[in-house]
Design brief:
Blueprint: H1 17-34, H2 44-57, H3 60-64, H4 69-76, H5 85-110, E1 116-123, E2 126-132, E3 137-145, E4 148-151
Antiparallel strand pairs: 1-2, 2-3, 3-4
Amino acid sequence: MLATFYRPCPEGSGPPLGQKVLWLLLLAAMALGCGRRDVAPTTPQAAFEQFDRAMREGDLAAAAECFAYEHRARQQNPDWDEFPSAERLFIISTLKRQMQSHLRDYGPHYLAGEFKVESVTERGDTAVVTLTGREETLTVPMVKADGTWQILSGIPPRPGRRQ
């Protein structure tokens, strides 16, 4: 597939500037598209575990990638599809930065307590992951967007620790 983008250049001239720019954009898109996730979670439990792992490792950028920003933005803006794409990207990036800030403040409280995934209830493109700890049971709402499960809202609290 990538070979279709390649046109041999005369010897010594190198690729044309447009081709260099295309390759740089392609590489940047591939790097950004992969995000900081190892693999996009295909189950609600895997999505929560990815968030949990990122929080435990202190990787706030990866943890912030686990949330359903577009879903949230659509709920708050019924005319979301009419927004220019640059404005939608700005809103989503702003929501991600805000979440990273919340996660930074929340991080010291996150590691308290142990938990167990008790159950996962899926209904179409929504799910609830139920966590149990020594003192309480918590639920984490999830939504499936573009084949990837994401945390629907808020920061999932850790069982055994009240905020």
